[in-house]
Amino acid sequence: MANNISEEQIRQTLKKVRHPEINLTLMELGMIDDITISEEKIIITMALPFLEIPIKDYLVHSVHEAVTKFGMEIELKLTEMNREQRNIFMTMSQESWIG
Questions:
Q1: Is residue 98 one of the residues assigned to a domain?
Q2: Which of 33, 69, 73, 94 sits 20 to 30 Å CA-CA off 13?
Q3: Does 90 reside within a domain?
Q4: In whole angstroms, what is the distance from residue 4 CA to residue 16 CA?
Q5: Is residue 95 part of a domain?
Q6: Are strands 73-80 and 41-48 parallel, antiparallel or unpaired?
Q7: For residue 50, what is the DSSP state?
Q8: Model's pTM, two decimal places?
């Protein structure tokens, strides 16, 4: 089944997943680090500004829900953003509230 699904299809799907508190998508915010498609599953690595944020479960559910349409098992790995990623994330989130 993985032969029919491309990383680009998954990225296009995830471009529609919006952050609930920021007027941007998870892709725009740099939160989707990596996508791997194996024979059995889709593996997505999502970077959070901090691992223990109150909306973590919501974000995980949102990503999982978006890619279930591909009919494969989904593994979501969580990582913490490095300082540079976090600075970009924070700047974008602040700008999205202004604009």
A1: no
A2: 94
A3: no
A4: 21
A5: no
A6: parallel
A7: S
A8: 0.88
